[in-house]
Amino acid sequence: MPKYMDIHRNLKGKKLKDVAAAHEQDLKVQNKHGVKFLKYWVDEKEGTVFCLSEAPNKDAPTKAHKEAHGLIPHETYEVQEGS
Hints:
Layout: E1 3-8, H1 16-29, E2 36-43, E3 48-54, H2 59-68, E4 75-79
Antiparallel strand pairs: 1-3, 1-4, 2-3
């Protein structure tokens, strides 16, 4: 299944614990959208969050995020993992 990296910007003031709570909400709805959220990274200083997922298409992670907590990514990229 393809992997996607989505980027959420303009989240200044959000802390790792806030993102962890949002990620838990993602996990609750991911199956409805055929998504498997794998990992996330947070840059608290810049207010940016990066989410890695497996999904059937580019729109599925965004739909899951929207349903889970309403934080829509600004960008989404299909990615391939290197070593």
